[in-house]
Amino acid sequence: MPKLPSPLHSRYTLALALAASLAVAACSKTEANPEPVRAVKVMTVGVDTFKSGYEFAGEVRPRVESRLGFRVAGKIVKRQAELGQRVKAGQVLAQLDPRDFQLAADAARAQVAAASTNRDLAAADFKRYATLKDQNFISGAELERRETSLKAAQAQLDQAKAQLASQGNQAGYTNLVADVSGVVTAVEAESGQVVTAGTPIVRIAQDGPRDVVFSVPEDKIVAIKPGSDVSVRVWANGGTALPGKVREVAASADPVTRTYSVKVSLDAATAPALGSTAYVSPQALSHVGTPVIKLPTGALRKEGAGTAVWVLDKATMTVKSQPVQIATADGNEAVIAAGLQPGMLVVSAGVHVLSPGQKVTIYQEKVSAVNAVAQAPSTLPVAK
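Request: output the structure for the sequence above.
Response:
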């Protein structure tokens, strides 16, 4: 009967076999998988024209807007003007309590009556003394004294009449009257309120020309001059464009927004309603028609502190990074100021998965067999 191997001998044999297999595996070399060739969309750089321009939001406002108030102090007893009401020149807008002014006018009227009586008495006295002087019963000095009294009485009468006229005006000032025709744009006081002279009660937008007021940042205000042409698009009129001219440019910037206020005059016959939203396009800031190079934003990527694109070398079918400078935006496209020349091939999609020198292929859209036969050979899109 054969002798069975011992457990120690079996373990030793298994260890030798495992070591031999590891040595064989270490000596064999594994080949690395080749990097896949990515398919990218490319477009040819070309020259296009600028299609969009600067547009600012503004508001339609009256050329002249007056804040009307009473010329005397008092308590408002009635207010006839309402917000949005159209008023005419001479129409009463509000009234103060006139009783105190009426009493003052009555007192002035009484002073006129008293001064008139004193003047008449002095005149009769002077006439009588003049007769006595003609008869040499009195001296000339006495007659002159009566003449002086008559002049003083006349002066007092004139003063009383002027005081009566002033008090009459004060009583008339208790009625707030519209001095122009227009629309009430604000009401700043109510009945029962005690106001001082000059306190704004009603604000009126005068009929006539209208302005569009909008704000312009500091870097654009230099190009906008009074008299320059603008195009005004009013939202309330369905976007209809209206011609206008710059009438006024603010001399200093707003302390909060740091923008400059610009007023554009509109024709009164075609002016929209007050408070309408308007979009102003200054012709001085328009670049429409300017030849530029534009790229879709998907072709741009961040590289360091600047912007770059991938340029395809068609001879080697590899990509390289090309720094570019962005001037501005035209709709959804970026306007390139420097870095590209017409005719270059730029990767327009998948830019964030590429590396310098990587081999790529041009992506071809999948089409059905019927469409493939019908279609002509495709060409690369052009980035204008």
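The radius of gyration is 47 Å.
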